[in-house]
Amino acid sequence: MDLQGEYVYPTLSKEGDIIIGGIFPFHNSWEISELVYLVNLDFRGFQYSQSLIFATEEINNSSSLLPGVSLGYKIYDTCRSTAMTVRTVMALVNGNEKTVLDEPCTKPAQVQTIIGDTYSSPSMAIASSIGPFRIPMISHYATCNCLSDKRKYPSFLRTIPSDYYQSRALAEMVKHFGWTWVGAIRRDDDYGNSGMATFTEAAEQLGICLEYSLTFFKTYSQEKVLRIIQQIKSSTSRVIVGFLDDMDLGILLRVFFEHNITGYQWVGTEAWIFDPVLAALDEHSILQGAIGLAIPKTTVTGLQDFILDINPLKSAALFGCKYTLPNDSDDTKVCTGEEKLSEIENTFTDMSPMPIFSNVYKAVYAVAHTLHDLLGCTQTCPTKKQPDPFTFLEHLKRVHFKTKDGEEVYFDENGDPPAKYDIINWQKGEENQHEFVTVGLYDSSFPAQNRLAVNMASIVWVPVSVCSESCPPGTRKAVQKGKPICCFDCIPCAEGEISNMTDSIQCEQCYQDYWSNHHRDECVKKEIEFLSYEETMGILLTAVSIFGAFITITIAIIFFRYKNTPIVKANNSELSFLLLFSLALCFLCSLTFIGQPSEWSCMLRHTAFGITFVLCISCVLGKTIVVLMAFRATLPGSNVMKWFGPPQQRLSVLTFTLIQALICVLWLTTSPPFPFKNLNYYKEKIILECQLGSAVGFWAVLSYIGVLALLCFILAFLARKLPDKFNEAKFITFSMLIFCAVWITFIPAYVSSPGKFTVAVEIFAILASSFGLLFCIFLPKCYVIILKPEQNTKKQMMGKVPVK
Question: Which of 45, 202, 302, 561 can bridge 24 by disulfide, Cβ–Cβ 3.0-4.6 Å?
Answer without folding.
Answer: 45
